[in-house]
């Protein structure tokens, strides 16, 4: 780590949620802080070959929604660097951390630029206090280190920050778990093991303080391995777990939500359930459209909004 300087979720029905937010002006430290989140598996290498049009699409999303936190999967290091430059150029600078997942990804290379790694990135609008990279071993154990071996390919990128919206420090992480392997007796054994590792490593932190965990987990919501993250067993709630609510009533959470990919919902935004609230049906899955002559990604842009509670 490099140092740089409930069931806990209460679902707010539409009127109550809006009434609790201040209309304008600087927020007091004790006030709940609404946050706009964006997660996107941008297929930076596999579909976009390290090129920049996909970054232009993300910039347009930023200009439209002005997110406080952005999580990106499958981003080439050169694309991440370009994104930071473009955010500055539009007058919306963000700070973040890129964690490589592989030692070499040939489709990221765009000569004469020889940068050649891909991974996950987490960006925030605020002040970073620390960053940390994590690597999954080939045995799917999550370790706090920043350099993968040649045989390792999955990582987590994390930052701790005081967001520009105000309030207490938040830890935010972006991850992309192993894909299913149809050649195995249990095709989902690898992402299941890694999902349980997320709960083991980050669960205690999420119980203690505000925590955001976003990413492509390569698992459908009903998979039992995700029970370790969802309530009641896990320390997190997922922002789309109340799909069956109405303005008048809301039952308990369900492990489900809008599809983020052709296979269904495999992208998630988890929040520590003792520290955040969110309105029911607050999630949007948006087709990113085309980047030049091809689809920008095989995943949808995952938009959500949450509120950081200052008194929890």
From TrEMBL:
UniProt-listed Gene3D superfamilies: Endonuclease/exonuclease/phosphatase (3.60.10.10)
SUPFAM superfamilies in the cross-refs: DNase I-like
Endonuclease/exonuclease/phosphatase domain mapped to chain residues: 57-299
Molecular function as annotated in GO: catalytic activity
Pfam families: Exo_endo_phos (PF03372)
Signal peptide: none
InterPro entries for the chain: Endo/exonu/phosph_ase_sf, Endo/exonuclease/phosphatase
Name the UniProt record assigns to this protein: Endonuclease/exonuclease/phosphatase domain-containing protein
